[in-house]
């Protein structure tokens, strides 16, 4: 069974988080981390765990991630473990718009996925980054905790 980490990233911060998660789960066999634009149908077969991450833009995932979520077939997700993350500002002001991770998680659950852990956000210090100090380590830890005892 494969673990697939799908992400989108404009300035590279979400990519760094996705790669840190991939590295952290590297103890498992068959972990693949891919940008959403690279996903082909064969990447979505025999999935054991699907992790989807996006920058938060206007409280939502990017259009490319939203499109991926909208188009993914229900049988691909039904019964498999899923998890969601985003990158975001740490200011309270943006809270009213919500964040990408919760919306990604809702979509994956609606399609029958079993959500592991809570959707998580990782902080950038500005629109283009960089990530707040310690966020790569926090992402690696989040990934290890959500898969613990599940895989
Ligand atoms: C058009 C746009 C809208 C954004 N909207 C939000 C938002 O609603 N909430 C938030 O926390 N961050 C917002 N941000 C900041 C992004 O989350 C930040 O650019 C992203 O984490 C960087 O990740 P990336 O380098 O992978 O693109 C926005 C950024 C852009 C460019």
Characteristics of this structure?
alpha/beta, Rossmann fold, 6 strands, globular, binds flavin mononucleotide
- Domains counted in the coordinates: how many? 1
User: Which ranges are low-confidence, i.e. pLDDT below 50, for 5 or more consecutive residues?
Assistant: none
- The CATH class label is Alpha Beta
Strand content: 15-25%
Oligomer state equals: single chain
Question: What is the count of β-strands?
Answer: 6
The arrangement of helices and strands along the chain is: EHEEHHEHEEH
Span of the ends, CA to CA: 10 Å
User: Count of helical segments?
Assistant: 5
What is the annotated CATH architecture?
A: 3-Layer(aba) Sandwich
Report the mean per-residue pLDDT as an integer.
94
What would the CATH topology be? Rossmann fold
Please identify the structural class as seen in this structure.
Answer: alpha/beta
Biggest pleated-sheet summary: 6 strands, parallel
Bound ligands, each once: flavin mononucleotide
> From the alpha-carbon coordinates, what is the Rg to the nearest angstrom?
14 Å
Estimate the global geometry from the Cα principal axes.
Answer: globular
Q: Quick gist of this model?
A:
This protein is of the alpha/beta class. The protein contains 5 helices and 6 strands.
Q: In words, what does this structure look like?
A:
The chain has 5 helices and 6 strands, in the order E-H-E-E-H-H-E-H-E-E-H. With 151 residues, it is an alpha/beta fold. The protein has a single domain (2-147), classed as Flavodoxin domain (Rossmann fold, 3-Layer(aba) Sandwich), CATH 3.40.50. Strands 1, 2, 3, 4, 5 and 6 form a 6-stranded parallel β-sheet that branches. Strand 1, helix 1 and strand 2 (31-35) form a beta-alpha-beta unit. It starts with a strand and ends with a helix. The structure holds flavin mononucleotide (FMN). Flavin mononucleotide is lined by residues 9-15, 55-59, 87-89, 94, 97, 124, 127, 129.
């Amino acid at each position: 069974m494969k673990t697939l980490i799908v992400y989108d990233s404009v300035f590279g911060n979400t990519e760094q988080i996705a790669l840190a998660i991939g590295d952290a789960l590297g103890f498992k066999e068959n972990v693949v981390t891919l940008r959403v634009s690279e996903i082909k149908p064969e990447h979505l077969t025999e999935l054991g765990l699907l992790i989807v991450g996006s920058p938060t833009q206007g409280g939502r995932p990017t259009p490319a991630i939203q499109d991926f979520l909208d188009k993914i077939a229900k049988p691909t997700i039904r019964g498999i473990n899923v998890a969601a993350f985003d990158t975001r500002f740490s200011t309270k002001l943006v809270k009213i718009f919500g964040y990408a991770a919760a919306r990604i998680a809702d979509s994956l659950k609606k399609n029958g996925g079993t959500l592991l852990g809570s959707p998580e956000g990782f902080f950038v210090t500005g629109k283009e980054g960089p990530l707040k100090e310690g966020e790569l380590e926090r992402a690696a830890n989040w990934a290890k905790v959500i898969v613990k005892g599940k895989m």
